[in-house]
Each structure stands twice: as C-alpha cells, then as structure tokens.
Amino acid sequence: MKKSSASKKTASAKGAAAEKASVEKTAAEKAAAEEPAAKKTAAKKAAAKKAAPMKRQAPAKKPAVVPKKAAAAVKGVAPAKTVAAKPPRGESRTALVRRARRIDRELAEVYPYAHPELDFENPFQLVVATVLSAQTTDLRVNQTTPALFAKYPTPEDLAAAVPEEVEEILRPTGFFRAKTKSVIGLSKALAEDFGGEVPGRLEDLVKLPGVGRKTAFVVLGNAFGRPGITVDTHFQRLVRRWRWTEETDPDKIEAAVGALFPKSDWTDLSHHVIWHGRRICHARKPACGACPIALLCPAYGEGETDPEKAKKLLKYEKGGLPGQRLKPPQEYLDAGGKPAPPLGAG
Fold first, then answer.
1. Which one, of 217, 257, 259, lies nearest residue 238 by Cα?
2. What tens digit of pLDDT does each residue of 44-97 get?
3. What is the value of pTM for the model shown?
4. Residues 6 or more apart in contact with residue 125 via CB below 8 angstroms
5. CA triplet 68, 70, 73: central angle to 5 degrees?
6. Which residues form the catalytic set?
7. How far is CA 119 from the centre of its chain?
8. Quick check: 216 and 267 in contact, CB under 8 A?
9. 84: which of 50, 56, 139, 158 lies 20 to 30 Å off by Cα?
10. 3-state SS string over 194-209?
C-alpha cells in the first residue's frame, strides 16, 4: 500500500512537470509567431514617418544692421541700411526712460559741439536775439543783430530808440514791426524794473514783453548755466516721433520730457535734439538712411531709407554748408564746422 501511494505521488509530480513544460512551450511558440508581426508593424510605422511631409520652419530673421555712429556720421559717411525695430506699444516706463537716455547719449557722440545757434556776447543780446528768432532762422537773426547791437548796445539805448529806425534794421527777420515793439518793450522793462540787467529767474523773465517759457529757458540755460528745456518746433517734432510723449502743448511736452532725464541734462539735451532735427530728422523728409539712432526710432521709414539718397538730404556741416553762427564756438570750428556768412554774402 505504501509502495502504491508513493508511485501515485511520483506519477502526479511527473504529470505536473509535463503540463508546465507544455505551457511554457506554447508561450514560446506564440511569442515566436508574434515577433515577425511586431517587427513588420514597426517597419510600417517607420516608413510612414519617413514619408510624411516635414513641417516648414520659418526662415531665420536677419539681424538689424546697426549704423555706424558718431564719427562716421560726422565725417559724412552714410551708415549701413538700417532696419529699426519699433518699440512695443506697451513699452514700460522703465524701458522708455532707458531708450530716451540712450538716444541722448548717441546724439551727444554725434554732436559733441552742439551749442546755441544764436550769436551773443551777454544775456541782453541773447534775450533779444531769441525774441527775434520767432518765425525765421537763427542764421537770419545772426546776420541782422550785429547792426542792431552796434547801434543799441545796452537796454537803455534800445529802450530810447526810434521805432522806425529799429524796424528798418529788423526788416530781414520778418514780422519786423511786432518784433520792434517787443525788443523795445523788453528793453524798457529791463531798464526800469531790473536796473538794466537781465534777470536770472524764470518768473521774472516771462514778465518781459515777447518772452515766453521757451525764450526764458534759452536764456537761463545758455547765459546763466541754469538747466532748462527749449521746446521749439524741432524739439516738439522729434520727441513725438520718438514716442517720448504724445502731448502737443509745449508746457506739457516740457514737463513730460523733463521727467525722463536728470535736470542737469536738460540744456544739453535741448541742443542735441534741435541739432538733430535741423540736420537729419527734417520735418518733411527725414534722412532715415543716414540717421545714427535709426535702430532706436519708432518712426524709422517715414523718410528716405536708402543710405546714398539720405546722405544727399543732410544739411549744415554734413552737407558741406556752414552752421548758423557768424562766430561759433571754437570746438565747433575744431570739429570742421564753418562760420555762417554775414548779411548780404549768402
């Protein structure tokens, strides 16, 4: 009985082993059968992927060419054609301040000799010349004032002048009757209220006949060394083109632009902007292709962008023409600038 039981156990174990071997063989045969099918499917996917059209990639943008600044512009060499990136409409206050100050730094390199373009030897001559510069060029004023100051060298002299005689001298400046009234009136005010001296305070200057904030800041900045922003037509045009402000009122422009710069920079900033407006960034046809700050200008493209054509639009020393002053500062002459011709000579 014991032998029979052991035999049964042995037979049972052998049967289980045989069954396990059979199952493993079946699984192996199944895997072997599926392997070619899997390889075939993978090959099909690879072929399909290879045949599928590739997505076209956008061509890389060409980097903007930054024009050669300062020295090249001053020497009359047209800078490379520039493609300027417009500042985003949502430009932050910080970004605006940085861009505005960078423009001023670039212009300071281009016009290191920028100066007031009215000839004067004292505050009285400057305030009179500035009043006369309305609706005419500084050049025309500079050609006219030598005769005026030779005959009327002090406020007391001009205050006592015969209006008709003054009108005859000022005729070349245009609106000579109104200007005669203004310069005689301000001379009387200086003689009677300020002891014949031009005051050095804004609130006093604007009380003089014909003197507004623009004229007052010209006098304060250039005769007394007190910072001021001169908002003339060139200044207004350029700061709006550059999107420093959208204001149109001169007083509001002055406040908006003044807030972007340290007060100590205001006078030189005015010179840089006005010089650039007269020489390159003209009202009707800016010379964009010859502009050293094109890459920073949101209005790039409003004028001529071809460097050679733009070069022909340049005025004053870059175009071989003299500046506005008959007696310009020595640093301007040292930089290759030429004095303006006297009245009647051109």
1. 257
2. 555 444 444 444 444 444 333 444 443 344 444 334 343 444 555 689 999 999
3. 0.74
4. 119, 145, 149
5. 70
6. 214, 232
7. 28
8. no
9. 56
10. CCCCCCCCHHHHCCCC
